[in-house]
Amino acid sequence: MAFIFEKSGLLAKGTLVGASVAVLLLSGCGKKNGDHPVGQVIAHVGQDEVTQQELENEFRLANVPADKRDDAVTKRALREIVTRKAVARQAIVAKIDREPTMQLDLLRDKEAMLTRSLMQRKLQSQVAGVGQSDLDQYITTHPTQFAKRVVFITDQIELPAQALTAEVGAATKDAKSLAQVEQALTGLKVAFRRNSGALDSASLPPQVLQQLQSEHAGDVFFVRTNGGGVFFKITETQSKPLAGADANALARQMIGKEKAEALSQQVTADALGSATYEGDYARIMKEAPKDTPASAPAK
Description:
The chain is an alpha+beta fold. It has 3 domains: 22-120, no CATH class; 132-143 and 244-263, no CATH class; 150-239, no CATH class. It has helices at 52-61, 71-93, 100-128, 132-141, 166-172, 178-187, 206-212, 244-274, 280-287; strands spanning 5-6, 41-45, 48-51, 150-160, 193-200, 221-225, 228-239.
């Protein structure tokens, strides 16, 4: 989760929405030109067939190990495949697969799936080369996540997403305590929940950790979350060093994350460097300002 903090008040934050790839299944439902699934047929859905290979692939995508594929699990998987094929066939009969936007969606989703697959393969290759010396070095150079790890115990007020309005932001922006926040929310008849929480320095971005450890650490902070927002104040700081197997596991995870980010940036840079643009798009791509990181703190 990306955190954006301020001493109170509300901060704007964008959202990333992933596109569905389910539409790709429409392209595999026909039988002409040898496009129908190949393998042992285990079911028929009208003029379409379900193969053993498709069922195995369904298990693979659902991460169902071989020893868990009992009759009940198999039944659910087959129901899913049969339903999908029947509905997809109806879409083909209605010629939805021939619509221009559908062709563009299929192309986009195919490219996205191929991109993810290649990126995962490249990343797995890089992570496989991480040894104990790499883990030791990472642990040494990131003390706040390991040897100097701390957990901040908080008193907090949680708000649902629908409560994060401009009116609430204006009423709480100058709050110096959670009592003042609570008073402002009560005056606006905004529902909230008061409880305790914890923040782990091992999982906090450096700029956030620095802010929490500053001379203003006793102030009221605000953070947006996926489900709404939280006002909080630190009530206690506990030392929780991380070592041994737990430290190695976290170090490996964080190294993998850093490698994934670096790989993504490199792949994007290489792709943009290989592209040429026509007409006014050449000017746009040359002059347009760089994207602002979504996690940049609001001013």
